[in-house]
Amino acid sequence: MALLGLRIANVSVSFTGLPVPVLSLPALEIAPGERVAVTGPSGSGKSTLVNVITGLERPSSGMVLWGEIDIARLPEGKRDRWRAENIGLVMQDFHLFAGLSALDNVLLPVRLRMKGAARFAERAHALMNRVGLSRHDQPVATMSRGEMQRVAVARALLRQPGVVIADEPTASLDPESGAAVAELLLELAVEEGTTLLVVSHDERLVARMDRRIRLSAGRVAVDPNVEAAP
Ligand SMILES: Nc1ncnc2c1ncn2[C@@H]1O[C@H](COP(=O)(O)OP(=O)(O)OP(=O)(O)O)[C@@H](O)[C@H]1O
Hints:
Blueprint: E1 6-13, E2 23-30, E3 35-39, H1 46-53, E4 61-66, E5 69-70, H2 76-86, E6 87-91, H3 102-113, H4 121-130, H5 145-157, E7 163-167, H6 175-192, E8 195-199, H7 203-207, E9 211-216, E10 219-222
Parallel strand pairs: 3-8, 3-9, 6-7, 7-8
Antiparallel strand pairs: 1-2, 1-4, 4-5, 9-10
The structure holds adenosine-5'-triphosphate (ATP).
């Protein structure tokens, strides 16, 4: 899958009854392969940004260009397909099926979406070894939280996405597991050649990213690529 960069122009997200947009981004660019942290206080718009750039939510206005494709213009079904092909998502609370094995969780998205998903089995095993999981048939319900997040990381990378987006990937882990998962995400972004965007309060993880963007009240308050934020 092609390495993708992001170009946002004039994006705003508004909700009925709220006087100001919850997200307002005149311009934001992320270069292909860049590793970017997004921080900001609660309610500053971080999850809304993730939703918009993954196509989970459509902005009220503006362009969300990944490579040449403006995902804000895609109808929902196409956006879902585009996301499945291009974005690996890692969420704070894993989004795993507890009743399934680790391997079945890694393979589930391709099994649900694609014919010939069996061809991913070899890569699934290799990725699970890479993230440090040796018991591929272990039921997720019996895993530690750190192991669960490793399953989620392997699942996110299965289709060789051009972009990995992680929303508070270490927030529900103990410090040691969190540090290990952070390390994995950074190493794998390089090995797999993906753009990486991480929303996090984890200072150690944030410090290791190439660029740190801070949101405040739905706007970019700090971005080293912009001389003076509005
Ligand atoms: N569907 C919605 N309807 C109305 N307001 C919403 C909706 N979704 C989000 N908001 C508001 O938008 C603002 C930004 O929310 P968002 O979840 O993006 O913040 P956040 O920075 O991710 O916060 P946290 O760190 O607490 O998760 C908040 O004030 C929230 O109440």
